[in-house]
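Instructor's aside before we start: the two examples that follow are unrelated to each other. I chose them only because their records fit on one page, so don't look for a connection. First example below.
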Amino acid sequence: MEPILIITAVLQEMSLLEHALTNSVQQTTAAFEYAEGTIGTLPVTLCAGGVGKINAAAAAAVLIERCRPRLVINVGCAGAYPGSGLSIGNLAVASNEILGDEGVQTPEGWKDLRFMELASFAQGKLTFHNEIPLSKHAAEKAMQLADYYGVFLMRGRFVTVSTCSGTRQRGETVARHFNAIAESMEGAAVAQVCLRSGVDCLEIRGISNLVVDRDMSAWDIPRAAESAQRFVLKYLEDLDRPELSAFVQAVPEL
């Protein structure tokens, strides 16, 4: 059976998942350490690939090539933009990912890759610039699962940045420009590698902080990481026992 590949940035974001992994075998490929095993009866591969787009893209590319997964789940923490309606500890699922830094600073302000007439990825007649789609089927399944369990889960556009928004003004500007709800440092990279590889991608993040003037004393990274992982465990349980998933309506594939 094709495995589920789960990618995080740091070990804290996969500790519960690793604890749930049985028959675990530690492996290394291209300098990335990962674990293979099962959760329930599902074959699962876990990797904490590192912080940032470069690490995330490299880990995703190497492990997709090695494992040939049927689904990639990107799990971690995120900052929620002001006005998103998200609070610390809430969960969010990405509908689309946006490359928030790729572009050019002009006298008229920041412009994206479309303005520069540069594609981040082209596939047949489709050209992708800053915005990368994720699997509609996987995200809709997550929304229905959350509704069934009474878990708050918001679906929306995420922004991936190399320089995090550390002021309320910057957060409000980015959120307004991209009509986005949250930001992280890896999501778009994983999503784009999955798109290029033809593999469905699901991104689930727990909210660790609000994107306001930076004050880490108000953050709760452990709570955010735990919330995201516990939901992913429920998602995997549902995948593992489809006969118990009558409550989930059929959703057309992409």
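Example two begins here.
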Amino acid sequence: MTGPSESEASSGDSHGAPLGTPLRLLHLEDSPIDAALIAEHLARSGLSCDIHLVASRDDYAAALAAGGFDAIIADYVVPAFDGLAALDMARDGAPGIPFIFVSGTLGEEAAVDAVRRGATDYVVKQRLARLAIVLRRAMAEALAGQRAAQASLRESEARLRLALDAGRLGAWELDLRSDRLNASPTCRADFGQPPDTPLTEADLRAAVHPEDRERMQATMARAIAQGEDCDDEYRVVRPSGEVRWVQLRSRPSYAPDGTALGMAGVSLDVTERKLAEERLVLLMREVNHRAKNALAVVQSVLRLTRTADLPGYVRAVEGRVAALARVQTLLAEDAWTGADLRVLLEGELAPFLGDGRRAVMAGPAVVLPARVTQPLTMAMHELATNAVKYGALSEAAGCVTVTWSVEKAQDDTAQLRLRWAETGGPAVPGRPTRRGFGGRVLDGTVRMQLGGTVSLTWAPSGLVCDLDLPLAGWAGDEPAMRPV
């Protein structure tokens, strides 16, 4: 390792203009004469320095603890102390501050080892003119390092803000000593607070729904007392009156003596998730209700189906259970919110829709409420089954026409008017002498469960069935089909 040339040493600062004044130096030196000589060289170089001179380990440690220095210069050998120990203390207590050895006994090997252990540079006392150059260069490099660190910090903060924004996370920090709350714009928005006014923990608590405030206080107090993370969700009432759900996650911080200093954490608006969870609970209840209804229908089918032989009984039961399965699929596809009337009818008349002559449908698009869908499906299945066995669809020339419309009733509710008309089948002798299972289904579902009316006309040309039922206001908690 070699130093600069004598011409460089005498030319002043080759790395830029003199640094600002005064330069605060911590000088470890046990020789007052050498200390005075070093101060004189620095003054003659144009550097204005405020030098704090120490000669012992204790004084050096105290000065490090006090801080406020721009650079440290140290002799390599101090009685009862040594420069390398001083270097280690500086790296621990004042990292980033330039540390320069100035010694008359420092050899090449020792100098290399010192730089390897973290020293910025070294100057031998026989060439003190070089000290000002080394100091200026060290300070310039330190300043460049600080700027790079600040730039890196700004980039890191920008990435953090980007990540928080992408995750819709708000950041907040509470000082328990002053009760002052620093919150990001997203966090303020989560709690319905303006973006630029001072906040306290009381302001945050006041925004929380009255029924959740006590729980919030208790959760935060427990986290501080027990030194644990805090994670909970609260309703927030915004100034407009809108109620939102906000999740708060935080962690307390403490002084070395255990005193609680503050809490820091993030906030997240989880309203959409909470609403989805509520919808899921309602959906599960609806599915459970529908499953019970389906079982009730199956039980009724098994008990009330009458045929002359076992194969006929099996076919009848299978057909009715298949109709139940189709309507369950329709409802599941739309998350149990309802089903399209045309799709429902197509499921029952699928074998006869191919040429468009044996089954014809006409009517506007209608989405049936979930509670209407299953009973109406069973009613349509019984009409289709009757048409295949005894009516128009039992002969090749027969045809079924289904038409419907939606009208407004006197009480402003929507009324579905549906007509099932059969033509081209066997001649109809008149009203049957007894009512079978299909008739029971029509009456039980349309009239008793859905609150509608059913009218059956046995015209000579074929059966005509008129259904008139409300699309709202029906009894929704009864079984899907009930024997009558």
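Confidence is low (pLDDT under 50) at residues 1-19, 473-484.
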